[in-house]
Design a protein that fits this description.
Shape: globular
Order of helices and strands: HHHHHHEEEHEEEEEHHHHHH
Number of strands: 8
Strand order of the largest sheet: 1-4-5-8
CATH superfamily of the largest domain: Butyryl-CoA Dehydrogenase, subunit A, domain 3
Distance between the termini: 40 Å
Number of helices: 13
Strand content: 5-15%
Helix content: 40-55%
CATH architecture of the largest domain: Up-down Bundle
């Protein structure tokens, strides 16, 4: 079996286009967006919606297979690999901007992972509409972060109307405002709300519900002010007697021992954690390239290939940063390759997320340290990338939680046995 590390042509062509966007639309206004948190850059949003549709992306960042050309008929699937490369390049431009690129995000990924064919047709097709559209995942609560069994939001079935009535509070919802608020320029999005249909059943009672934008009883109660990714809105959402149709529950509406509803929705993260890793590595690559550029301007060249004892301290640091970045990217590529080929990647998904979280934080911090005042100055974007980096280790499962997932996978323990 031959292993080919050459980037497939469809991905290389797409990267070239997105690099132009990153350099001319994102980098030029990164500082402005960072200082005007939550402002929506409509020019970028509408341009990317149109551009992604023209590339077969359905108006957003989604898993799509490039149309095969002559001679490509036997090419293996590259949908997730393509998406990871897209995200890495956009995050290289500006990770906050990447997070506001139109698309389904975690909300659509949950529908894809656990929805019925009818639900997928109803909710995912809207990302092909003429207007940019968003979806978000609402899981974290004031008293329930990584421990999903502590979620207190409730969903009760009103048998008279055959509707679910949801009450609860969600926090730290990435893209929550654009996914739910009915902006004139946006299509009809939705949020996916996690709630319990039976609190006595623990995780077995957890279900995800699709709540469409504009639904009564849902309030965006707060937009967070953050250290990084400030172009992206992070919302707190209140749900009071929110009524949604019976068919909007993802998975079976009854509590069962095998808990397929919960497991199916959790499979969302096996697909998306490598994509979070890719976004962080885009930030790390931006920082490392900037560091090399500034060192070169000051006459410092990195002499690759020499024994370590003949290198300067700065050269060793830069080479180590290169190694960390490349190894993390290879780990991410393995995880998305497995997703493309329908292989179980729970272990590799969490490993890539852990590794990227560490590498992104360390590389950006070391770049700031080496450049000193230049790295700390707001004259350049490096200090912003340093602030943007840390979120890679936090959202979609913290580094600590993903380490637990990795340990359970390797040692064969259940969640109850290893906490």
């Amino acid at each position: 079996m031959t292993i080919d590390f050459e980037t497939p042509k469809p991905i290389a062509q797409m990267q070239a286009m997105l690099k132009t966007v990153a350099e001319n639309m994102m980098r030029t206004t990164s500082r402005e967006m960072d200082e005007n948190e939550h402002a929506i850059p409509w020019d970028y949003v509408e341009f990317m919606h149109t551009a992604m549709r023209s590339m077969g992306g359905g108006g957003g960042l989604t898993v799509t297979e490039p149309k095969p050309k002559e001679g490509d008929e036997k090419r293996p699937p590259i949908g997730y690999q393509k998406l990871a490369a897209q995200i890495e390049m956009l995050a290289w431009g500006d990770v906050g901007y990447y997070l506001i690129t139109p698309g389904g995000g975690l909300g659509a990924a949950a529908v894809q992972a656990a929805g019925t064919p009818e639900q997928k047709a109803k909710f995912l097709e809207r990302f092909n509409s003429d207007k940019p559209t968003y979806a978000a995942m609402c899981m974290t609560e004031p008293g329930a972060g990584s421990d999903t069994s502590a979620i207190r939001s409730r969903a009760v079935l009103d048998e008279k109307t055959n509707e679910w009535v949801i009450n609860g509070e969600k926090i730290f919802v990435t893209g929550g405002d654009k996914s739910f608020t009915e902006y004139e320029k946006l299509g009809k999005g939705f949020i996916v709300v996690w709630a319990s249909i039976d609190p006595t059943a623990g995780r077995a009672g957890m279900r995800a519900f699709v709540v469409e934008s504009g639904t009564k009883g849902v309030t965006i109660s707060k937009l967070e002010h953050k250290l990084g990714i400030r172009a992206s809105d992070t919302a707190a959402i209140s749900l009071v007697d929110v009524r949604v149709p019976f068919e909007n529950v993802l998975g079976k509406p009854t509590v069962e021992k095998n808990n397929t509803g919960f497991k199916g929705a959790m499979a969302t993260f096996d697909a998306t954690r490598p994509l979070v890793a890719a976004s962080g590595l885009g930030v790390a690559r931006a920082a490392l390239e900037f560091l090399k550029e500034k060192l070169a301007e000051n006459g410092v060249q990195i002499r690759y290939g020499l024994p370590r004892n003949k290198l300067t301290s700065i050269e060793r640091d830069v080479i180590d940063m290169d190694i960390q970045l490349r190894s993390a990217w290879l780990m991410t590529l393995k995880a998305v390759w497995m997703a493309d080929n329908k292989k179980s990647n729970a272990l590799e998904s969490s490993m890539s997320k852990v590794r990227a979280g560490d590498v992104t934080t360390k590389v950006t911090q070391k770049a700031v340290e080496i450049l000193g005042p230049i790295g700390y100055s707001r004259e350049f974007l490096l200090e912003k990338w340093f602030r943007d980096a840390k979120i890679t280790d936090i959202y979609e499962g913290t580094g600590q939680i993903n380490r637990l997932v990795v340990a359970r996978q390797i040692l064969g323990y259940t969640g109850a046995e290893l906490r």
